[in-house]
User: What shape does this take?
Amino acid sequence: MNVNGLIVASYGRHVIVESLDGQRRICHPRGKKNQAVVGDQVSWLASEDEGTIESIHPRKNLFYRQDDIRTKSFAANIDQILIFIAAKPEFSEMQITRALIAAQAQGIQALIALNKKDIQPEFEYALQKLSAYKKMGYRVIELSLKDPYFDLSEFQNLISHQSTLVLGPSGSGKSTLINRLIPSALAATNSISEALQSGKHTTTNTTWYWIEQNQKTALIDSPGFQEFGIHHLETSALAQWMPDLQPYIGLCKFSNCSHVHEPDCNIKTALARGEIDAQRYKIYTQLFEELSQPRQF
Assistant: This one.
């Protein structure tokens, strides 16, 4: 008999499914390609001590990236993403923008957390770089996770009763955050690795952790990344997914204005008036050029 469950981890050709009673087991998707991702609600069928994925329920969203060659899915059915960065190593505004655009296109809200407040003056410099994102309406949370007594109550309120995908580069302190909020996270990961008999060679795309026993609040951990492709988005819609540019579109001289080359562009006029951050516009033009290149699929 088919049973409903939630995919809480993905390990190559294997996924971990949590059933309604909280039990977790290894399942294998039917067919050659694994289409199921963490956060998917699925129907599965038990087979001895493991199981098979029979069907994937309709999704409300899917957060993913895509470059010229491949598509990488992070998670489905999430409420928000948390861009987790630090004063050191210095973060890339381009990569932040790519992730925020991908979230905006899926209708997923986003938060930004800046860690390592104890590192000065780097932290203040990083905070200044984020001022444009604050003006756009993104919530920027300041953290100092090196301090074991740092108060996380504000952060916990922002993720309460939400499923939040944590996304950021390696070295930012993401694992520290997970372990602070979910002390059992490492043990859960190790037990899965042991079940798969793959030890240190096991790599997971994304892992879902419940913060509370009532299973209302979840953090979804993802591996660090160096690149974030947004080739799944249309070039003509790029400005629409950037909150600081979006209010100015539709008022240019040409209806198909790229906001790069044409005269009488409302976005470029706003830039000249200082209403749009110059660095943000530079990022837009770089992304526009990238997405305008012929696809190599």
Remarks:
- The radius of gyration is 21 Å.
- Residues 42 and 54 are 7 Å apart (CA to CA).
- The chain has three domains: 3-56, 62-221, 235-292.
